[in-house]
Amino acid sequence: MKAKLLVVDDEKNTRDALRRALEDAFEVYLAVNVESAQNILKADSMDVVLTDLRLGSESGMDMIKLCQKQSPAPPCIVMTAYGSVESAVEAMRQGAYDYLTKPLDLDRAQLLLKRAVQTIRVEQENQSLRAQLDRSFGLDRILGRSGEMEKVLDRVRQVADSKASVLLEGESGTGKELVARA
Question: pLDDT value at position 124?
Fold first, then answer.
């Protein structure tokens, strides 16, 4: 199944050229501006978004924000003919996955788009696997709900993502292994 790509550019020739160049690798959707892109994103989720930095009176930065509001949020790659270090840095700070300058090297653009899709799919799979592990070995498998046990569970949550080693002490059968797996 092809990944879904949304191309947002106010220049028809650019949109059409990108569609022709990328339609073998992607299911390509085209939008003229942020509003039309928003309508497409409401109707269907995208795997990746390629947007121009300048969209008439709008900005590609608005597209980055729109992408971040989606669930799952597709990576947003910004392209522009007016490339500068400042605009690239700002786009990346706003949350862009990457930045391309026009005229596009279509091979590089296609490779970058595929890498972005692969990255987001790995992240989604990782989240799914973590959720499965949490259901199998998470703190909710510990039955005790007394005030003292809640304090212990709060402490476990505080150190759970830490890289530090933690020593668990207690009598046999008190749940040390469940806590360690959580």
Answer: 86
